[in-house]
Each structure stands twice: as C-alpha cells, then as structure tokens.
## 1
Amino acid sequence: MSSIIRKEGYGYAFNAAACASCGGKCCIGESGNIFVTTQEMQNISKLLDIDIAEFYKKYLIKKGYRFSLIEKIVGDSYDCIFFERESGGCAIYEARPKQCRTFPFWEYFKNNIEELKLECPGILDD
Ligand code: SF4
Ligand code: SF4
C-alpha cells in the first residue's frame, strides 16, 4: 500500500513513511498548543488509567476557553508532554487528539505550504 496521502483541497501530498525517521518534528520544537476536547480528555485519561481531575492537574493548561496539553522544555525545544524522545513516539498514540491525527492536513497550511515543509519532511509537492 502506498504511504502517500492526498486530501482534496490541499495543494500538497504527505508521505507517511517519512515519520519513521523524522524524530517527531511535529511534536517538538517551537512552543504551541495541542487542543483537546472533553471527549479526548476522557479518552486519554482512560488510556492512562487516571481520572479526569488528575489528568487536568498533570497535563492540561487553560488557553482562553480551551484546554491544551502542556509542554516540557528539552534543551531549546518545547516538546509535547507525551512525546517520548527515546522511541520517537507518542505515549498516547491511540488516544491522541484530533489536532494530531489530522496533521499535516490543517486548514491553516493550505496557504502556508512553505512553512509546513520546514516543519514536516513528509510534505511533497502535488
Ligand atoms: S513532522 Fe511530518 S514526518 Fe515528522 S513525524 Fe510529524 S507528520 Fe511525520
Ligand atoms: S499528543 Fe502525541 S502526537 Fe500529539 S503532539 Fe503530543 S506526542 Fe505528538
């Protein structure tokens, strides 16, 4: 099966095979927000086998009217709290938020392809 993914309306393609050797560039680097919905909070808490109150306290920060996963500073990078540098993977992969699942096909990147290319080595011209 091809690892090349295309989505209608986007002027680029994505080679998912690039993730294997990328080192998780989309989960680290500049500080950003990884927004989670109430349902996603429940899903992640369940996966971690903790209750929502503990999840809230340990892993979330309020940003306006929404909640984002917190980051941890590693050198000069802001890593997502769930990124595991040793394995290069996500500790909550099965329950990762929609924002992570839909990367790199975000509305914002439709008009900012060059910026996306700098972040993600899997981006191909379509
Ligand atoms: S930056 Fe791109 S290639 Fe790297 S892990 Fe994220 S999606 Fe995969
Ligand atoms: S939740 Fe997982 S996939 Fe999403 S940014 Fe954090 S480590 Fe990456």
## 2
Amino acid sequence: MEERRLILWDIDMTLVNTGAAGQHALIRATIEWFGGEGDLSGVEIAGRTDTSIARQILEKYGKQLTPENVDSFLDRYVALLPEELPKRNGRVLPGVRELLEDLARQRNKTLGLLTGNLERGARLKLGYYDLWHFFPFGAFADDHHDRNALGPCAVDRAATHAGFQFHPEQVDVVGDTGHDINCGKAFGARTIAVATGSWSRERLAECEPDFLFEDLANVDEVKRKLGW
Ligand SMILES: [Mg+2]
C-alpha cells in the first residue's frame, strides 16, 4: 500500500496573504480598548498564536492578563476581521490552490491545519478565499497558546478524522516562519519552509527545515521533491 501522509498547513503567508487584514483588525481592537493609534511595535505577530499576540498587546498596554481580558480582546478581533478582509488587497499564494486540489484528490493524503489562528479566525480567512473546505480539522490557538504544543494535538485530530494513527515521520508541516519549523521539529515531523512571508530564505535556512522553497508556484517540482 502506498505510504499515507498527513500534511499540516500554516495559514498566513503560507496559504494566503490577507493583505494584513488580521493585523488591521488587531490594531482596531487595540484602538477601541486603549485609544491612541493602536501602536503594536514590539509585538511579535508572524508565526505566533493569536492568544500569544493578544497577551503581548494587553501586557504592552498594562492590562491584566486574566483569561477574561484575553478572551474578550480576541472576541473583538474576530468580530472586526470580516470587515477587514474585503478591504485589503489579499490573495491566495502562488500554486496553493492547485496543490491543494491535487492533494485532496489523492486518497493516501490527509490535509489539516496547524496554525496560530483561532479556529474562528482561520474559518473567516480561509472561507473568504474559498479554501476552508480543504481542511476538515486542525489545531488552533484555541488549543494552546504555545505553538509547539499544537503538533500532537493536530495528529490526534487526524487520527479521529482519518481513523489512522500517523507516526511523526508520516507528517509534513508547511509554514513560512521559524516558529512553524520548530513546531514541526518539536514532534519529529518533516518540515517544509516557504519563503513567501516575512522570514527571508536565509533566516529560514538557519532553522534547518528539511525542505525550503521560494514559493509553491511550481506545483510539479514541489510534488516531485516532496514525494507528494
Ligand atoms: Mg505564517
């Protein structure tokens, strides 16, 4: 029997570039809470979970980090996101839709999400770009604020969904930051970096992913190199 593979995807700057819709929703939520310009300097966003981002923002503005404050800030962020998505000049990244359509047709491939987005935010972003239906399950910021804890959670959900227990060496993690690579390495998965986000090719290479692509535009080459 052909080898089964579980392929877990990051969202922002790996599947889609939302034109920073998420960041603009965060800035608006920050202005609503704290006034001013919604300055997010010093807050690390790329590759971080939404929960960790919200905690950094509340901390920056001196708000107590109670679960209630974090949840209610994130609720506001999620409420603003649908207004921001159509305002931004976003797009599905090169090769992604073709690759997902191809993989979804292969019976030995299982697709899922491994993302720092809240599930509600992930559904809004991918729904807007008509990609949500490719991903029947995932691990999200709701599951843990530490991204490295999300991998095993995604593998558990894959087992429930596919009725098959994937070993770490049967799992691929695809992402655009060192946080995605580290998250994959943390549970022994094969790691695939794409330099379509804010991390340069050189910076990604320092994290020693198993594969590193400029982008996924050349679908045939990506498939051949990864054995997909
Ligand atoms: Mg990303």
